[in-house]
Amino acid sequence: MIFDYPKNGKIAVAMSGGVDSSVVAALLKEQGYDIMGISLSLWSCHRSERRKTCCSTVDVMDARLVCEKIGIPFTQLDLQSEFKGVVINHFVNEYANGRTPIPCIPCNDTFKFQRMWEEASTRFNAAYVATGHYAKLTRDADGTMHLYRGEDDKKDQSYFLFSLTQEQLARSLFPVGDLTKSVVREMATKYNLVNAQKAESQEICFVPDNDYAGFIEDYFPEKMGDPGKFVNQKGEEIGRHRGIHAYTVGQRRGLHLSMGERVYVSEIDPKSNTVVIGDDSHLNKNQLTASRANWIQAMPETFRATAKIRYAHTPAPCTVKRSETGDFEITFDEAQRAITPGQAVVVYQGEEVLGGGWIDNVR
Question: How far from 147 is each of 163, 233, 346, 348, CA to CA, in Å?
Fold first, then answer.
């Protein structure tokens, strides 16, 4: 594939140590772009050095080796203090308040597409940031940017990019957005990259084994919730929970309740410190309200669209009603399973990302 990106400035490639960003760097280098690789040091703890996470010292070493292989400069930026203040503290506080956060999105808009850009442009005169995200961008004649789903439907990452501004999108490049994952791996093998067959990261980078409750208990014990009541749909106590920080809507495992049937967390009430339990039918809701909206495109007050309530969710038809306060309401045509406060809801029309926000209330 041949890129038609401007060649009027250096491109900083966000190097995660994974195969996608490595192929981005190799492709851009091969086509004559002036590029450099940058890895971000965001969190350090010995438990994060296991496989299936990103941002470990092993990942940084892989990124460095790839840059050496293809012959481009490499640098590492230490943003750990800022990351803890912006991303980790928010993550912990959300769980402490009975919500389920998704830290990859604020990490993207604050660090990969803002702080890295600021450092790269100031220190290295970079004009663009390229990443290995599976998403697509187009630019209108007037400069308006449009964000679309990636070509590989199974790997599409547009959901994680809804909060980027027009300014951030205008200086971003997604070179593998038109490729499938299998093609990217073939290219990595062709370039003989050290991480060509490296397994994908599948966890939050600072939470090994996806044990978010254990992470909070290990590193932020003061944020642990007090034990409280499990209650049924009638409000009757049916057991005791370990603290609301350990639960999320839709959770079935780890409840330690003997109910004679499969039961799930259907609601978390931080005010009363209760976790509401129900069967699968109690997870189905068709309306949500969201706040802190970011609209990539100017949209009317009310419009039809599809929306995703989590990364792995299939976009579902809905009606969106916006307010002047930045809040909006979504009513789905059909009930959706386990709509979860704290998660992002991302709005699409066809393949295009219109914007989104953060789920507050569900009914």
Answer: 11, 41, 12, 10
| CA-closest candidate to residue 340, choices 360, 320, 312 | 360
Q: What are the per-10-residue average pLDDT scores of the chain (363 residues)?
A: 85 96 98 96 65 69 96 96 95 96 95 95 96 98 98 97 98 98 97 92 81 93 94 97 97 93 97 97 98 96 98 97 94 98 98 98 95
Structural domain includes residue 219: no
Q: Does residue 318 carry a catalytic annotation? A: no
Helix (H) or strand (E) holding 24: helix 19-30
Q: Are residues 238 and 129 in the same domain?
A: no
Q: Which structural domain, as residue segments, surrounds residue 258?
A: 226-278
pTM: 0.94
Annotation says 54 is catalytic: no
| Residue of 54, 55, 67, 205 marked active site | 205
Q: Shortest CA distance to 361 belongs to which of 312, 326, 315, 328?
A: 328
